[in-house]
Design a protein that fits this description.
Layout lengths: L6 H4 L2 H5 L7 H10 L1 E5 L4 E3 L7 E7 L1 E7 L5 E8 L3 E2 L10 E4 L3 E7 H10 L1 H27 L2 H15 L9 E3 L4 H8 L3 H13 L4 E3 L3 E3 L3 H8 L4
Antiparallel strand pairs: 1-8, 2-7, 3-6, 3-8, 4-5, 4-7, 9-11, 10-11
Helix pairs in contact: 4-5, 6-8, 6-9, 7-8
Length: about 230
């Protein structure tokens, strides 16, 4: 018997678009039995660099900021995760990054031991995890191009395009969204100064690429215009 997926899983975006899509109803029932929903306020730490990981999570709502601390105390934002991304590294007991809630975040957390066992028993689940890892690798390489070769305006536009295409898993491109990062964090993520980020935001606004309301709310009138400003192919 495959079992019927729990109601809470059937309505979950991670069930349909995330790693849980590879699980049968029976496996979802088993995982759901030990899972718990957790809420993190914006600015709170989800897990710290070097901490022991007792669980993994699927992001249900919100944006998670990933950062890396250097030996001398300097910190760099190295990535963002969105729903329905999987948080954690199977079979790795210690977190190599700090994960912080950039916005209010809700996750579905489940014990590491239970999930590691499911990975060994379910080839499709292992394949899903490989798919996400390769997707993150492709995105990291694309971001290297953004940081290394693009102009300041293209960098800021690329950040906005990243948010527009990832902030809502039910939309391929979200034309209205709130910025999940402060100007200081955007500058850190892009390798720019805060002043440069603000200046480029103003230029994009004057060129009608974006509309900004209340300093954080962004409206994108034309997706193609933002894509072109970001220098994104396709």
């Amino acid at each position: 018997m495959c079992g019927v997926a729990p109601t809470v899983c059937s309505a979950c975006e991670a069930r349909h678009g995330g790693v849980c899509a590879a699980l049968s109803g029976t496996q979802l029932i088993e995982l759901n039995r030990n899972s718990v929903k957790r809420h993190f306020d914006a600015g709170s730490e989800v897990i710290g660099q070097g901490e022991q990981t007792a669980s993994y999570s699927n992001i249900l709502h919100g944006v998670v900021k990933l950062s890396k601390m250097m030996a001398d105390g300097r910190q760099q934002i190295v990535g963002l995760q969105f729903a329905p991304d999987f948080m954690g590294r199977p079979f790795l007991r210690e977190s190599s990054l700090t994960a912080e809630a950039a916005t209010d975040v809700e996750v579905c957390a489940f014990p590491r031991a239970s999930f590691d066992r499911l990975v060994t028993e379910t080839p499709d689940l292992e394949h899903k995890l490989h798919q996400q890892a390769l997707k993150e690798l492709d995105e990291a390489r694309e971001w290297m191009l953004t940081l290394g070769r693009k102009t300041a305006q293209e960098k800021v536009a690329s950040f906005l395009y990243l948010i527009a295409t990832h902030i809502d898993p039910t939309h391929a491109f979200k034309k209205t969204f709130d910025l999940p990062l402060s100007r200081a964090d955007i500058a850190d993520f892009l390798g720019l100064t805060i002043e440069t980020v603000s200046r480029q935001m103003t230029k994009l606004r004057k060129e009608n690429v974006i509309v900004i309301e209340n300093n954080r709310h962004v409206i994108v009138p034309d997706a193609n215009r933002l894509r072109n400003a970001a220098g994104v192919d396709g």
